Task: inverse folding
């Protein structure tokens, strides 16, 4: 049994399981699936009343979501520590060729080490990718009213037009960043 759990599950098992979570959360619990509001809930819990934005009952709104986030962390830890860790990431050969053309060597897992290490943070491209990209992701999630998973999984399942627009924007931004901005940074 443990061997079955420790192996990566195919998309046709994992996808429907995620898909079944959405109706359970939306229809049964009346909850939205997403993770980006957790920072606000944590700030409201630890610094209540410091800003108007944080004056709300975080226990009523966000306690289930914080428990969900803790579950994600525990699930990752259990998977890494007791179920065989990360395993090998199979990148397509075309992706490997594209990464090497950009000057990025062999990836460890799916992460190019030239961009995602403490050492790379001291370089201009590394700083822009890690700090600038992190800021833009955080700002975009807040400004867009949710993160990628919230819009793409929960918002689309709830037939929300803003989520459809957000998903188009997320994919367009990713394509632009990967095909135009990243090559410019790495020249």
Result:
């Amino acid at each position: 049994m443990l061997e079955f759990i420790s192996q990566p599950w195919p998309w046709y098992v994992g996808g429907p399981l995620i898909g079944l979570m959405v109706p359970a959360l939306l229809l049964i619990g009346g909850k939205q699936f997403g993770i980006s509001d957790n920072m606000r809930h944590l700030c409201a819990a630890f610094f209540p009343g410091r800003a108007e934005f944080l004056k709300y009952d975080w226990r009523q709104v966000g306690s289930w979501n914080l428990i969900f986030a803790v579950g994600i962390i525990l699930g990752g830890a259990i998977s890494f520590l007791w179920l065989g860790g990360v395993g090998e990431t199979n990148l397509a050969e075309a992706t490997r060729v594209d990464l090497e053309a950009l000057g990025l060597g062999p990836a460890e897992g799916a992460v190019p080490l030239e961009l995602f290490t403490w050492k790379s943070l001291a370089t201009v491209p590394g700083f822009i990718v890690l700090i600038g990209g992190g800021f833009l992701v955080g700002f975009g999630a807040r400004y867009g009213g949710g993160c990628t998973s919230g819009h793409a999984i929960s918002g689309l399942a709830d037939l929300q037009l803003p989520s459809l627009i957000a998903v188009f924007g997320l994919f367009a931004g990713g394509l632009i960043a990967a095909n135009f901005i990243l090559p410019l940074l790495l020249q």
